[in-house]
Amino acid sequence: MPREIALADALVPGLLLVFGACLLLLWLVDTLVGRFGLYRFVWHPPLFRLALFVCMFGAAGLWLFH
Amino acid sequence: MSAATQATPASAPRWPWLAAFMAEERVAWIFVAKTVLAMYITCWLAMLFQLEQPATAMITVSIVMHPQSGMVLAKSFYRALGTLAGSLFGLTLMSLFPQQRELFLLSLSLWVALCAGGATLYRNFAAYGFVLAGYTAAIVTLPAVSNPLAVFDSAVMRVSEVLLGIIVSGVVSDVVLPERLRLLLRRSAREYFAHFIDFARGSTGGSIPRREMEQAHMRFVRAAVQLEDLRASVIFEDPEARARSSRMRLLNQRYMAASTSFQSVHHLINRLQRSDHDKVAAALIALYAPIGEALSPEPAMQQDPASLAPRLLACEEVLPPLAANLRANLPQATWLEFDTGANLLRRFASEMRDFTSLEASLRAGNLSGSVETVHFRRGNDYLGAGVSVLRTFLTMSALSVFWLMSGWPFGSSAMLLATIFSGLFGASAHPMTGIVNTLIGYVAGMVAGYVVTFWLLPGGDGFTMLIIATLPFLLIGPYLTTRNALPGVGAGYTLGYVYILALKNPMVYDPTHFLNDAIAQVVGLGLTAVAFVFVPAVTGSGWQRRRQLVQLRRQVVQAATAPLEGLLYRFESVNRDIFQQVVAYTRQDSDESRSLLAWALSVHECGRAVIELRRDMAHVNFPAAVGTVVSGAVQAIARLYQQPGAEAWRQADAAVDRAIAVTSQHLEHARGSCQSALAHLHLLRSALRDDESAMAPYIQSSAEPNHAS
Predict the structure, then answer these.
(1) ipTM of the complex
(2) Which of B166, B240, B367 best probes binding to A when mutated, by most A CB atoms within 10 angstroms?
(3) Pairing status of strand A10-13 against strand A4-7
(4) What is the CATH number that goes with domain B564-698?
């Protein structure tokens, strides 16, 4: 994946798009998990979500740009 | 003696006020700590990423932070949307008018004004998104106004700074010692549920004094609006709440429908008792008894929806045979009245069953299947929004003209501040107090900023020293926002302090620039106050309240004319929203408040009856001949609420009477469809002739109730 992408002729870092995609993914996961109430089994749900997001973003970033 | 007096306080905590004070201080200081933490993380990251103005990111944090994390996330979401929209517009504007500053400033003023007007049309933080859209267009373009080529970089910088501030404050408030809004929502939802069930159970005696009914109505309305407001913020905080969101909406609509039916039943019984139809009233109270019984299981289960729902279901089976029994014992002339009441009671019972079973499934966490999507509609005053647009436009164009004519180098600072504050205070009810408080806080913040920038900061080196130098004065602002005594001072202080400090890497030592900028900012803030003198705030003013009362009455016109699809939900929610807006600014027990309540109850009852009547008319077997007469009656009632008066009342009353006569003639060969229409018509007539309602001044003394059934 290219490091920079031209969106309407403006160069945008590729990571920004990955960031947006990960937010969308987190939203999907949230919808599913919230639907079945699975966050009740987690001690600190916001912290868990944050960690989950960091994992997703880190993994996607490393995989796409390594 | 002295031993006894000494022994008693020893068993209790020595200073009970101290414990309460400490608990309150603890909450306040947690908030202060979170705000300060978020601010310094933002500042550090902004310097690390080499953003131009870390101060913008810090200001974002100070504006977005709120003790409850759901509020922060909701506010952040709308702020992000507003920022993106505003910067896109700013870029477009700059590329359209790079050379024509008059046109540029005119369009910018217009855009900011329209955004300020849009903000008054929304409750919650969506309003805030509008303010931000206006304000960001200004902060993106104004610093680059003399160098149009730099506008793209400026836009990218501002958007990055704002988004950085949003992300950091969202993460900090959600992860570090979060204060959950969800708990508040759950607590108030259970409280309102219990109150409603208790009230419905406690009124099995039948008659409720009008005063108590009015109090209950206010409470029901406040509950419905508040639950919707909370829901709209909680969905940002909690994924589980988001999964329940559509059910919570539906629950609220069912709550509103049930409370309207409940009120109609009691108005009807009250009227029957007043007009010497005690037998019918007694029969209806007897018919209400099974519902009251269904609502009273053993005391421990009385507010538990899971045990109430099956009982209400069983009660629905009991009602029709009991109604037939009671009806047989009444004289035939009163059957119509009894049927009206029995019809309402059946509706109330089934709505209560729907309401409690949905509440039960929500509490059990049973979310399988999809539910009907409903929306809570708001009632808006577009002319009020127009006034806000006008005021902001005048402020902005006055400042632009002054800036252009004088060539003032710091004009853009003044314009920026004016933009922020005319948007933020546009929808407020007491903008003058708010602005004066904010101005005091702002000036205090700038004085503190002066001390820090020119006495403390030059002595230190590095980020740690920066924190040590700026922290003591920074703490004051967030702490003041947790005190309710001086609204606005804390926010003004933080804003003034952070803005004028203009932390950046490396810092600049320039007292002249500092003083010029400070003067410009105070001028911008002061001019906003002046604008509110020329074009006063409309929110909560007598003028807007009168307009909203008219709008409330028009709800019946809507009920009579708008397409039926989704009409009931819209009617119920808009009604409550308007009522809640007016009642918030009405003094209790004044003549105005009494008249407002009377109209609200009357609109509620008649509007609902009109909608039900129109549903009956949509029935396939409804005879066409009856249809025209009944629509005539519906139109006459719409005219009465459009323009209340004795003549309109007489016409409406006559039209409803005629419709009742024609419908009862057709009752023989179309019983299925006409029966319930007849009951609704009768309910309308009795509501029109209620001499304790808002109709009282228009009722003519000659109109003696003659029962034409």
Answers:
(1) 0.90
(2) B240
(3) antiparallel
(4) 1.20.120
